[in-house]
């Protein structure tokens, strides 16, 4: 943690740099996704400006987050914006983002376990991934129109992060995600994108897990 007399000076710089990095990553992911998969294209600004907010908020907390926990958080921040934008625009969570997120999340959580509290964190991440994905797979099976299979694939990586954050995070995430999703209902009718709710709930629970 930064010393108390240094933090007030450095914090605005960290927030500014976080916003700059966020804008660059938001723009890069939007352009790359549109070029590789034109069916996932979103308008300019849909990734850039939310990424500025999310990266700035994360940078503001970075001095409180253990160094071993920061990589999984940054992976979540990187993926959250393009996935949310694409789901809101096209009502889909593309495989080219959700599938690589699974091994990447496990890799970074393995590093976190070795550098941090130990391999129990990795065990909890694997259990969380399977439990969270199993829950969403059951929901998809019972009501495919209410929960798409893309949400199930996304829940594998998010569940790993939530499991590593703690059992309380794993238990709270579905409820928080459902509340966020229901707030979108008036504007979306029966086809409600659930990915934004899942991502927002995971970020809200994972970021402060080891503060």
TrEMBL record:
One GO BP: signal peptide processing
Annotated Prepilin type IV endopeptidase peptidase domain residues: 75-181
Keyword Chaperone: no
Pfam family, one: Peptidase_A24
One Gene Ontology cellular component annotation held by this UniProt entry: plasma membrane
Transmembrane segments: 12-33, 71-89, 96-119, 125-142, 154-185
Gene Ontology molecular function, alphabetical: aspartic-type endopeptidase activity; methyltransferase activity
Keywords, alphabetical: Membrane, Methyltransferase, Transferase, Transmembrane, Transmembrane helix
PANTHER family, A to Z: PREPILIN LEADER PEPTIDASE_N-METHYLTRANSFERASE-RELATED, TYPE 4 PREPILIN-LIKE PROTEINS LEADER PEPTIDE-PROCESSING ENZYME
Family to which this protein belongs: Belongs to the peptidase A24 family.
Name of the protein: Leader peptidase (Prepilin peptidase)/N-methyltransferase
